User: Fold this.
Amino acid sequence: MELLFAVLGGIAIAGGLRYLLPNRHSYGVLLLPAVGGAVSAAVWSGLTWLRWPFDGGWIWVASLLLAAVAGILVAALLSRQRVAADQRILESLSRA
Assistant:
């Protein structure tokens, strides 16, 4: 049951990051929540296999923090690549 709450927390945090980060027009609405949910699920599962107590606070901090970090990294990398690709296409089309 706690895994469900951790995944929902990761989805909510990463979904909220979409509206805090720039260039949100360069990636889809559901990308960051999907990444946040997947990362929080993977981290939570991995830490429970390492015998971290599921009712402890550190497993929550680790899984939700890493979900936020993954969302920020994905948003930064994808938006930078997409803006650069759009700029290259605009330059090539304006020369033709």
